[in-house]
Amino acid sequence: MPSSVVRIGLLGCGVVGQGFLRLLRERERLIRDSVGATLRVTRVAVRDPAKHRECDLTGIRVATDPLAVANAEDVDLLIELIGGESMLEPVRAALQRGISVVTANKHLLAVHGGELERLAADSKSTIRSEASAGGGIPVLQALEHGLRTEHFQFLVAILNGTTNYILSTMERDGRDFAEALQAAQSLGFAESDPTLDLSGADTAQKLAILVRRAFRMDVAYGSIPTEGIIGMELEDLRQADRFGYTVKLLGIALLNSEGLDLRVHPAFIPKRYLLAAVRDEFNGIYLRGEATGSMLFYGKGAGALPTAQAVLGDVIVAAREFVAGVRFLGAAEKHEPERRLPLDAVRTKYYLRLIVEDRPGVLAQVAACLGGTNVSVAQMFQAEGIRGEASITILTHEARDRDVREAVKGIAKLPAVRKTPRAVRIFDI
Q1: pLDDT digits (tens, 9 = 90+) for 195-226
Q2: Coiled coil located at which positions (predicted)?
Q3: Has residue 183 been placed in a domain?
Q4: Is 313 within a domain?
Q5: Minimal CA–CA distance to 210: which of 258, 141, 140?
Q6: Nearest residue to 412 via CA among 379, 365, 375
Q7: Does residue 191 have a known ligand-binding role?
Q8: Is 51 known to sit in a ligand binding site?
């Protein structure tokens, strides 16, 4: 007989967990009609049970041990919203019992995604993670269902709302990096310690999850060449505008005959691109497939309610399966062997900005460094010298990434160079 109640264990009751409980309460009738049963949270694990929360936990057993919740007999479905490596054991425990899991834990999926999916298949359960890679954007569901058999060649995405807000604020308001970061923190778009976002690591984790779905290839996110936006200056965004570009932190996955070109870094992109219009805390995921052509997924990549809605969507699907007795959706999907194109071999254009002594012969020295590694200049602009210094902006033709980086190292060693050169890739495909 189908169950009339699906009992939920919830790990974490922060802003997303509270948002989920709010949606569960406000949409109770719609959810019940959709699932065919009532969803009831029976247990919650939190770090501090005494902490005040903007939600009613009456009738719910509140404890501090996530593993105990994962193993509880009155839990039919586990939701994991604490995050981090420490949640691996509770998630494993639930899957081993045949309990399906919904998680927003991008670290867990980026590092252990393959193992957890195999474990779910072996135990006739499922693990769903829509909220892990795009907040409220339903891209993983699209890749898992409607686009499951598509062959993708191209995925380029803005996956971090914090860095996108900072870059948008710098560009729009003329604020420097520190001011834009402070604004992001005051609005709740950036953590008090924003290192994971600013370093590009958050984007790399999400990119690894998307690559697993879109290209059916397991990639260790720690192996993805990653650069963040730390050190980006307002003048770089002004120069981007001068040449018809805007600056975004991109997660890039391009598949060709040489392998998968996979990287995370800030990039100049043409203003005509759809991704150039993705501003502030919004995310955008641009895909190009063999049959479907180009498509853009756009929306809020973070925030309590957008993320909670993504969690709820996964919970409804998992609860439907539980009520219907559908506990096994097939074997774990076989993935392609990893074929990577090394960053050294990637061919790309570059933006370079140099602060040099304003005297004759310096340009010739810079040109010699570039020419010595087979890097040619496409455009150049020199600002009027101030206090004996000149600012030189160079856009290169396409060249091997390794060759451009070697040229920049050589330029940095020139006696006339006053400051470490800025080097940003140009993404124009």
Answers
A1: 999 999 999 999 999 999 999 999 989 999 99
A2: none
A3: yes
A4: yes
A5: 140
A6: 365
A7: yes
A8: no
Give helix 161-173 / helix 177-186 axis angle, nearest 10°. Answer: 120
Same-domain check for residues 308 and 358: no
Name the residue range of residue 50's domain. 5-135+303-324
Beta bridge partners of 265: 250
- 124 lies in the same domain as 194: no
Q: Phi first, then psi: what are they for 118, rounded to 5°?
A: -65, -40
- Quote the CA–CA distance of 111 and 121 in Å, as a whole number: 18
Residues paired with 55 in a beta bridge: none
At 399, the amino acid letter reads A
- Distance, CA of 323 to CA of 314 (rounded, Å): 14
Q: Is the pLDDT of residue 333 over 50?
A: yes
* pLDDT digits 0-9 by tens, 19-63: 999 999 999 999 999 999 999 999 999 999 989 898 889 999 999
Query: How many angstroms separate the first and last alpha carbons of the chain?
Result: 56
Q: Given 206, 248, 300, 349, which residue is catalytic?
A: 206
H helix intervals, 301-374 = 304-324, 362-372
pLDDT in tens, 229-279: 999 999 999 999 999 999 999 999 999 999 999 999 999 999 999 999 999
Within a domain: residue 269? Answer: yes
User: Rg of the chain over CA atoms, in angstroms?
Assistant: 24
Query: Could you tell me which of 429, 228, 245, 246 has the C-alpha nearest to residue 348?
Result: 429
Q: How far apart are CA 83 and CA 105, in angstroms?
A: 5
419 is catalytic: no
Q: DSSP labels for 116-181?
A: HHHHHHHTT--EE-THHHHTT--HHHHHHTTTTT--EEEEEEE--HHHHHHHHHHHHH---HHHHH
Diameter over CA atoms, the chain: 87
